[in-house]
Amino acid sequence: MLNFKIIWKIIGQLLHLESIFMLSCVMVSLYYKEDDIMAFLISMTFTISAGLVCRYFGRNADNNLSRRDAYLVVTATWVVFSFFGMLPFVTGGYITNIADAYFETMSGFTTTGASIIDDVEALPHGILFWRSLTQWIGGLGIVFFTIAVLPSMVGGSMKVFAAETTGPIKSKMHPRLSTSAKWIWSIYLFLTLACMLAFWLAGMSLFDSVNYSMSTTATGGFSTHNDSTAYFQTPLIEYLGILFQFLSGINFVLLYTCVFKLKLREIAANSEFRMYCIIITVATVWIMYLLISNLGYDLERAFRSALFQVVSFITTTGLFNDDAGAWPHITWVILGVCMFIGSCAGSTSGGFKCIRGVMTLKIMINEFKHILHPNAVLPVKVNGLSVPQSNITSLFAFFALYVLMSLIAATIMIVIGIDNTNAITISLSCMSNVGPTLGTQIGPVMSWSSLPDSVTWVCSLLMLMGRLEIMTVLVLFTRSFWKDN
């Protein structure tokens, strides 16, 4: 039996937390003396009131959270957070269409970075800060953030951790999950502050450096300028963007081991990290060659543009320093593969994840060996550890659902009237939480405002499923989930 009282209680407490995040945007609005103050105050009032109602329904709840409760509370939290998160856009009149406002907010929290706003530079500073903040909060997970800051707020936190974190293998740094969460968020905060300082010293304004650092380390992609990173026309800023996007795509537990424990050999020996680096290297060199031979780029510009776009796509960030839509079409295929694979599990990025790619390759190699030695016992080993059969089964189930949901969504879009290339890349972009697409109808430097409402709602669902890795959302639609036993 689902424990609805604890679910109401947790959602109510999280809504109060969301209202505190909105309060920080009020401070920004007051500083710049702009007209979005009332939008945030009204939104805070609605959010706090809804939180009180939820806590009333959840009064006298115990802290016993079952696995089913955890999956429901995680999915419900992301849906509800996005609903109340869109209120500043709607109440302020910055986005008048509900479907578009919900899409923009879901894109923020899931760190997708796709935007329906044609001119972000026309928005007030408070709204721009809210867009960046939604990405930063969603980078490692809304509920996971709560476990780190207020562990007593979420009972059964290990079950919640399993429902919200990415990757087939969950790794912790400490036996207590709340302690691990604090360490991981400390690394995340350290990366954000370092990125902000680096951008500021490279010539960005303080406001831009704060926003771009949150967007970069969350691998989100929202910008305060229409031209994204290309606005600054500064190679140093672009190289810094590459560096921090790359670091944010590494497993944070591995990053902690490397940076804080100075075990550099572990990161070099990690098979997922090696695959991550190999894909980036091969894709960058290939695209460099195409840009030099086809478009006449000089060596440095070809290297910088190719590396930036490859890292942006594989980390599912979505920032850009060049218009990849004007590049040769073969580069779209290369970037599409990067978009699909994604970077490392346990990072802020989306996609299929390199660890699953490593597991798939090892399974394929073992199958070839089985043909020659049918009686051999060949365990699948990743970083010296045998992968349980249950994880292998989950891997193929995830891959099948990932491809199936992308194809279904693309088919729906084609039926509605989206061209084939855009339909496929839009669905892949949303499932991988990337942001930019590759096509002529909606290119990598264009907004998504031309999409009809029906497609916008489909994209919002795909972004949620991609961020929670499909199973967490789809399990709610199974009959067995709602059975009492």
UniProtKB/TrEMBL annotation:
Record's keyword terms, sorted: Cell inner membrane, Cell membrane, Ion transport, Membrane, Potassium, Potassium transport, Transmembrane, Transmembrane helix, Transport
TM region positions: 12-32, 38-58, 70-90, 136-162, 183-207, 239-261, 273-292, 330-352, 395-418, 455-477
Presence of the UniProt keyword Transmembrane helix in the record: yes
UniProt-annotated location(s): Cell inner membrane
The keyword Ion transport appears for this protein: yes
Superkingdom: Bacteria
Primary localization class, coarse: membrane
Membrane topology term: Multi-pass membrane protein
Similarity comment: family membership: Belongs to the TrkH potassium transport family.
The name this protein goes by in its record: TrkH family potassium uptake protein
Organism whose genome encodes this protein: Xylanibacter muris
